[in-house]
Each structure stands twice: as C-alpha cells, then as structure tokens.
Amino acid sequence: MTPEFVVTFAQEAIKTTILVSMPMLGLGLAVGLIVSIFQAVTQINEMTLTFVPKILVVLLALLFFANWMLEHLMAFTVTTIEQIPFYIR
User: Fold this and answer.
1) Containing H/E element for 83?
2) CB of 32 within 8 A of CB of 57?
C-alpha cells in the first residue's frame, strides 16, 4: 500500500462524504438564510422560528434524496470492497 493510494482513497472518501451531505446542508442553509431575512424584516427574535423550518427541510431533503445518496454510498462501498485484493499487495 503506497502513500499515493492512501491519499487517493482518502480523497474519494471525503468527496463522497461531501457529495452525499450537500443536498441537506445546502437546503438547510437556504432555509436558514430565508428565515434570518424574515426575522430581520419583521424584527421577530424567536429562537424556535429558526430551528423548526430547518429541521423540517433537512428531513424532507433526506427523504427526497435518500435513494440518490444510497446509490452513491453503495457504489463507493462496492468499489472499496472489490479492490481489497489490490490493497493487500
């Protein structure tokens, strides 16, 4: 196992992690920004107003993107398991 292999494997793992988490994080960020603008315009400083919409949107994003996320995670896992014989060399 060479240092180049370890770096490449770590890069693929990080890329997969970021790719799988982006839909939920992006939508949560967008909803947070919209709620913050709404709070600034109306001068409402209710703390639960920020958390509840974000939680709902992240849950809906998880339900909507679950199939796509699972496909990416399975592809990464299958590739990793299939390459085990090459890792041992």
Assistant:
1) none
2) no
Q: Is residue 11 part of a domain?
A: no
7 lies in a domain?
no
Q: Which residue range forms the structural domain that includes residue 58?
A: 22-84
**Cα distance between residue 49 and residue 47, in whole Å:** 5
Average pLDDT over residues 3-23: 93
Question: Per-residue DSSP letters for 35-73?
Answer: HHHHHHHHT---THHHHHHHHHHHHHHHHHHHHHHHHHH
CA distance 88 to 40: 58
Q: Is the pTM here over 0.85, yes or no? A: no
Helix axes 48-82, 3-42, angle to 10 degrees: 160
pLDDT in tens, 24-54: 999 999 999 999 999 889 988 888 888 999 9
Number of domains in the chain: 1
